[in-house]
Design brief:
TIM Barrel, 6 helices, 183 residues, alpha/beta
Length: 183
């Protein structure tokens, strides 16, 4: 079972699916098949660490899904400086659909905000260098993310919205952010 590289206009696209997650491994074929049977024409599978870049590539090979490479803020303790160079290499060599999942998470107090912001800025630079949109993780950090997007003039973006019923304020909409349930 493979997803269509250019799905029909009237299909659903899951813009954020961690199909490579270890907990899905025992039934990943079933998960993909059920998504397809439910009318999902394409999936975007974002990486979260450099260690998952090859897993995401395997999902594209196996299912034909769109992929993204990025260094997720929740896994900050796993990211090394050399992972940015590795990310740059993967973006150049493997033609992903986006850079992601990247962003800021100010909900978890153990995550260093300054280090998160530095990592976000470097990944936004890579997205611009490669002409790619970004898939964002934004939790209790919308104003800071918007500041960086505005400063770097980066658009378009897809924001992962975690809170039920939450909405983007006008500056977010003006910056090109879209909640994934708005698409």
């Amino acid at each position: 079972m493979r997803f269509d590289p250019l799905p029909a206009e009237d299909c659903l696209i899951d813009s954020h699916c961690h199909l490579d997650a270890p907990e899905l491994a025992p039934d990943v074929d079933g998960v993909a098949a059920r998504a397809r049977a439910a009318g999902v024409g394409q999936l975007l599978v974002p990486a979260v660490t450099a260690g998952t870049f090859d897993d995401v590539l395997a999902m594209r090979e196996r299912y034909g899904c769109w992929i993204a490479f990025g260094l997720h803020p929740i896994y900050l303790d796993r990211h090394l400086d050399e992972h940015l160079a590795q990310l740059d290499e993967y973006l150049a060599r493997h033609a992903p659909a986006a850079v992601g999942e990247i962003g800021l998470d100010f909900y978890l107090p153990e995550l260093d905000p300054a280090r998160q912001e530095a990592l976000l800025v470097e990944q936004l630079k890579l997205a611009r260098k490669h002409g790619l949109p970004v898939v964002l993780h934004v939790r209790r950090s919308a104003d800071r993310v918007l500041k960086h997007l505005h400063r770097m003039r980066h658009r378009p973006c897809l924001q992962r919205q975690r809170a039920a019923g939450a909405s983007l304020h006008p500056p977010g909409l003006q910056a090109g952010l879209r909640r994934r349930d708005d698409l």
